[in-house]
Write a structure and sequence with these properties.
The chain is mainly α. It has one domain. It has eleven helices and two strands. The protein has a two-stranded antiparallel sheet. Helix 1 packs across helix 5 and helix 8 packs antiparallel against helix 10. The chain is globular and about 60 Å long. This is Phosphatase PAP2 family protein.
Length: 285
């Protein structure tokens, strides 16, 4: 495995060990878990499946507030799409000035191979050490990424938006296309990267720790803009999708008391705001 692969793994494992350390500090008394590894794995698998089912059933339970949020996101996406061509041209123009390491880390961290290997390692550590917080974090990531992965895979084909570059513009579509050059919306790298970053960031109470995790998670989306692989709208929609799914699964795990955590970790509170001719969301840690 090449050196750049190890750099990505060290970043992920650095976060993993910090989560584990935080758990040991907060727990004054450690109860010995006598449950077998097999039963724990089966339990986690069951919770993952139920979490995925919960995610896909949520639209049938949406209320007025949820529909309003969806409308705002759709409106925002359409608004941003009006500058997609200009923004893409600007990023591509400046790509030669971006360090190769930044682009390499962004491409690899958002790739399915590194993503699933990293999460498998995270879950493996949590399972064999019977660390409940690590197991729950991994279940949150697995459930959320499976859900967002299915949604983004279907959406890419159904929407058929052209990628930047060549003769195509941001408003070129070829619905139900199997051609990779018409698989721009949403960004798969962004979905995976933000899903993992948001799930991990939820495990911290410290604001700066959250900022650090989100900063690492933003490398993949930004690198895709510089590479000319996606439009800004693709990144925005993928980010909104990832955050919504992770928050939903996280809420389900707490609501059902799937894991025995002493208290719910701080989450980002998203508030819809209006200001003059502007509309958007503000996230509060």
């Amino acid at each position: 495995m090449r050196l750049k692969n190890y750099i990505v793994f060290f970043i992920v494992f650095g976060t993993i060990f910090k989560i584990s350390a935080q758990q040991n500090v907060h727990k004054k008394v450690k109860i010995i878990d006598t449950t077998s590894i097999g039963k724990l794995a089966l339990y986690d698998l069951t919770k993952s499946i139920k979490s995925v089912g919960y995610s896909f059933s949520r639209p049938f339970h949406w209320q007025k507030k949820d529909l309003t949020t969806l409308g705002v996101i759709a409106f925002s996406a359409v608004s941003i799409s009006t500058i997609d061509d200009e923004v893409s041209a600007l990023f591509i123009k400046n790509e030669p000035h971006v360090p190769n390491l930044f682009q390499e880390v962004g491409t690899r961290f958002g790739s399915p191979q590194v993503y699933f290997i990293s999460n498998a390692a995270l879950y493996g550590i949590g399972l064999f050490t019977k660390n409940e917080k690590l197991r729950r974090t991994s279940v949150l990531i697995i459930s959320s990424s499976f859900t967002t992965g299915l949604i983004q895979s279907f959406s890419k084909t159904a929407i058929g938006r052209a990628r930047p570059g060549g003769e195509y513009k941001s408003n070129n579509f070829k619905f139900w296309s199997n051609e990779p050059k018409f698989h721009s919306l949403p960004s798969g790298h962004t979905v995976l990267s933000i899903t993992m970053a948001h799930a991990i960031a939820k495990q911290f109470n410290n604001t700066w720790s959250k900022v650090g995790v989100y900063t690492l998670g933003s490398i993949a989306p930004i690198s895709r803009l510089f590479a000319g692989a996606h439009w800004l709208t693709d990144i925005g929609v993928a980010t909104a999708l990832s955050i919504a799914v992770v928050d939903g699964v996280d809420k389900f795990l707490f609501k059902t008391k799937a894991y025995d955590l002493t208290k719910k970790q701080k989450t980002i509170s998203w508030n819809l705001t209006y200001s003059g001719n502007k509309i958007g969301f503000i996230g509060t840690f």
